[in-house]
Amino acid sequence: MKKSLITGLVLAFFAIVCGALLAIVNSFTAPVIKAHEEEKIQESIAVVYEGFNKDEYKAEKFTRDGVKEAYYIIKLDTDEKVAVIYIVESQGYASKIRMMIGVDKEYKVTGYTVISQAETKGDITAHDFNMSGKDDLSTFDKLAGSTYSSKAVKKNFTLALSYAKEDLK
Q: Which pTM does this prediction carry?
């Protein structure tokens, strides 16, 4: 019994030491990881909002029901909200299709990119849905043979355009 108690105490000591070391390592790596994630977001925003750069604009994250993430694009010299970027997702045929979609204050799509998807038919990441510069879905170009995927992408655009009308008033 004494031997098992000592073994248990030794294991508890090692667990505490390992936990402390993990916390120390995390305190060094967490800021680096966060900075890397922010840089990736800034790069993605530049794809969906042409001309975005840190010298003229800032991306301010805000909370929006129904979207994964949302950012206001704010012009630094005037502090004016010039666009909004949403990360939205809808269910396709085999997976959720997550997209980043930008909408300007004229409620026109500034750009879009597919962030993640695992659809079985068609390459939706390479398809041009003909939505850049558009303020409605009348010119939406679905991907042939991918009905469910196209419906999910169209829903993502619908969400982004309708939310922008509320968020950019």
A: 0.74
The Cα-based distances of 16 to 7, 24, 94 in angstroms read: 14, 12, 43
What gap in Å lies between CA 122 and CA 25, rounded to an integer? 43
Q: Which helix (H) or strand (E) holds 112?
A: strand 109-116
Q: Which two tokens stand for residue 101?
A: 């979609």
Residues sharing a CB contact under 8 Å with residue 57, sequence separation 6 or more, in sequence order: 49, 51, 73, 74, 75, 76, 82
Q: How many helices (H) and strands (E) does the chain have?
A: 2, 5
Q: What is the dihedral of CA 146, 152, 157, 159, to 10 degrees?
A: 170
**Residues in the chain with pLDDT values less than 50:** none
